[in-house]
Amino acid sequence: MRLQCEVEVISRLLPTCGLRGRGRATRALLSLGRPPGRARGGGVYLMVCTARDRGGARYKVQENIERFFTRFVEEGKATVRLREPAVDVCLSKANASNLKNFLSAVRLAHQGTDIGALPLSALVPAKTSEVEKPKTKMIITSRRDYPLTKNFPYSLEHLQASYCKLARIDTRVLCLKKLRKLDLSHNHIKQLPATIGDLTCLQELILHDNHLESFSGALCSSTLQKSLQFLDLSQNKIKALPIQFCQLRQLVNLKLDDNELIRLPFKIGQLDHLRFLSAARNKLPFLPSDFRKLCLENLDLFGNPFEQPNPLVPSVQLKIPLTLLECAARATVNYRIPYGCHLLPSHLCEDLEVAKTCQCGSACLSSFIQITVTMNLHHVAHTVVLVDNMGGTEAPVICYFCSLDCYSQFLDRYLQS
């Protein structure tokens, strides 16, 4: 039987010599078995192998254990106190279930249980991979250093593969289930596979300076919506983000600089954890109505060709009288009537998802009046990078009205001010 964990062997005689007893635990492989070549009646030993001593140190088990300390076994910690030599074998960072099974086998061996009934292993030197500390970080910054013939360590939590001329994401990367940070900046990636959403622990995704033209809606509906906090899509060729983008509700930092964006996500206000947003040097003519709901620490919209707002020149798409479809859609949203693809055609569900909100709080679908008004960006962000070289911190924001009455009330307030 074998167990991988961290081990510290402490001599109980050191204090009598005036020496300190505590050191540092190290990665180790524990084995319970008999040395090779011993007769069938030979004793059972506990062998501790480390990277420094792969041959291992052996300790007799039968009638040689003074005490087991298992108070924190559920946390993967335990201590085996031996009589001879007088040492404590302290185990930590073990799988709790495997640790319990291993300690149970050691206890049976100590009690003299028949060797045939014990799950013993051959006491042979450990492989290097068995005692090395799992690799959690790998940084690759050139095509020459990119691994082509061997897999990435499955223990990786941070992988950077920049300047490697990658045209697509390596399928081997998509198998790294512990990955928390993935940096694929400065490559030639044109498309993201939907399976990147299977990286359930991914918190940071950096795709700066690639050839992306879109961001898949499937990714926004994947497990990334529960984990992703940092997303860098800057310096690509993205023109628009999908409707589902705002399902990434855990986003804290979003970078969209130097793309070809003609609009920001319609429901961007749903990103209630978002604190840092940069979308400089795009092609944004105005900001979506939902932008007012954001609460940011830092905002950068420099270098966008924002239009000059004119509330007195509305875009009227109001149909009077309202169609039956418009009335039904407004009622569904206003009264929060449940709906779904099992009740309505999918295209109607999509239309309801992007229903506009009038200044009065009512919904409107395809019948509305649209204008742009000026908003000081300090209303949504503590720190604002200047919008232009003239020192401005204002930008045009879309406003919708569900009726002529709502629009006329707005005009009265606007003209009076």
Care to describe what's here?
This protein is an alpha/beta fold and 417 residues long. It has 3 domains: 2-13 and 46-130, no CATH class; 137-283, Ribonuclease Inhibitor (Leucine-rich repeat, LRR (right-handed beta-alpha superhelix)), CATH 3.80.10; 315-379 and 393-416, no CATH class. Helix content is 14%, strand content 24%. It is built from 7 helices and 22 strands. The protein has helices at 96-110, 128-131, 217-220, 224-227, 324-334, 346-353, 404-416; strands spanning 2-11, 26-34, 45-50, 57-60, 65-69, 78-82, 87-92, 121-122, 137-140, 158-161, 181-183, 204-206, 230-232, 253-255, 276-278, 296-300, 315-316, 356-357, 363-364, 369-376, 381-385, 394-401. It has a 9-stranded parallel beta sheet, with no helix packed on it. It is elongated. The mean pLDDT is 91.
What level of helicity do the residues show? Answer: 10-25%
| pLDDT < 50 stretches | none
Q: What's the architecture of the largest domain in CATH terms?
A: Alpha-Beta Horseshoe
CATH topology type of the largest domain: Leucine-rich repeat, LRR (right-handed beta-alpha superhelix)
Q: Tell me, what is the CATH class of the largest domain?
A: Alpha Beta
Number of helices: 7
- What pattern of helices and strands is seen along the backbone? EEEEEEEHEHEEEEHHEEEEEHHEEEEEH
Radius of gyration: 32 Å
| N-end to C-end Cα span | 81 Å
User: How many strands?
Assistant: 22
Strand content: 15-25%
Number of individual domains: 3
Mean pLDDT: 91
